[in-house]
Design goal:
It is built from two helices and 24 strands. With 277 residues, it is mainly β. The chain has a single domain, classed as Jelly Rolls (Sandwich), CATH 2.60.120. The strands form five sheets. The protein has a seven-stranded mixed beta sheet with strand order 1-3-4-11-6-9-12, with helices on one face. A seven-stranded antiparallel beta sheet has the order 2-21-18-23-15-14-13. The longest helix is centred in the N-terminal third of the chain and has 8 residues. It is globular and about 55 Å long. It starts with a strand and ends in a 7-residue tail after the last strand.
Length: 277
Amino acid sequence: MEIRFTTDNTSYKKMTTEELKKLFLIDKLFHENEVYMLYSDVDRSITGSTVPTNDKLKLLSSTKEMAAEYFLQRREIGIINIGGDGLITADEKVFSLAYKDALYIGKGTKEIDFASIRPEQPAKFYFVSYPAHMEYPTVHRKFSEAESVQLGSQKDANKRTIYKYIHPNGIKSCQLVMGLTELDEGNVWNTMPVHTHQRRSEVYMYFNMKEDAVVLHVFGEPNETRHFILRNGQAVISPSWSVHSGVATQNYSFIWGMGGENQDFDDMDWVPMNELN
């Protein structure tokens, strides 16, 4: 498990792009036959992925970093598949996840296995986990069953659909909120005007992009922003003090996962455009 200790909202202003990337950019996701995990001190999130081919892969606890007998001893996890059809076994109960299906697994589940139905078209499981103090049942949600909201407009190049999986009116959780956003063809902006949410952090993972496409992801305090260049299958951690918005060379999709003190999706501190620098 990779460990990241991030910086505060003053020190980041003196850092180079490379220094910031080493703290907030996640660029080692989706390698075959590997369970990759990154532990961040931002709300103690764990972000990761697994791409099983011929054999099952297990989600194991890291005793040193988590001090837990098993991964979900004191945690919960949200998983979305962005690859071929796959299987997740949670304490001997098997769930079949197609493309963009989601699975929430609550605190107390001891054994979790990942597998692909067709090794030549492997599943690509992406997950976000936060600490949990209550147990909630494991729930599978098909993409077609997710609550959807259409936002933006073609003239502003931000026409998009938000799909909510884990949230107060959907799959119940302790503090995790998770879903994905898809931009219509010809639209490139997400989350503009920008916002922060002091009561929780967030992780964006961009996907469904061509090999030569890039996202310019806006980061930092509203009055002194920085940016990262992200490619397909890469993610960025946004602390509560940072804005998180992006514009790309094509339309794209991204998975968002949040954890903190408030699960209200609309709990946002909007930033007027004339205050953005």
